[in-house]
Amino acid sequence: MPRSRLTQRRVDALKPDEKTHDVRDSVIRGFGVRVLPSGRKSYFLHRQVDGKRVWQSIGDAHTMTLECARDRAAALLASRSKGDDASPECSGAILFEDATDEVFRRYKPHWKPSTLKVNRYYCRRQILPWFKGRAIGDITSRDVQRWFASLHETPVAADRSAPILSVIFRQAEVYGYRPEGSNPCTGIKRMWTPPVVQTGT
Fold first, then answer.
1. Which of 81, 105, 140 is at the close of a domain?
2. Which of 10, 34, 12 is nearest to 23 (CA)?
3. What pLDDT, on the 0 to 100 scale, is given for residue 39?
């Protein structure tokens, strides 16, 4: 993974690629900037917390200066070293649609082409309109329950969409966008039950 002293000019000049890529800073260990294929850039801190490696978003590189992001990263590391669990508020976490785009690119080998096509359809029609524009780390079980309830008039679509949303959140954990075990889709139950076909005796 590239590592060098980040400058504001270099951050501004970073260009998107076909895949998400990180550029780490040589000044603060674990601090860097992530560039998504969409062109969005976000500062992050990759650190050890309670024996686990945690990826934390610091802020949107389009609206936050490098100096501010580096100060926040340093504050997070300092608060942890003092045993203080309270950390500065981190804004600009990766948006749901950007995380979803990454999931579909990286997870698609697990789906058949026909399944991928259907999943993209339901994601575009049923999922993105509700969650687009929100930070994926801020979405709660209550939010998902409200979304699922909003689809009560189309139960089949709800049942097809829920597993897709669950995969998005599960992979978001793998990619470091959400804490481990935080999938807000846990507990969602199917709306539609196929009718029982009675046969003659």
1. 81
2. 34
3. 86
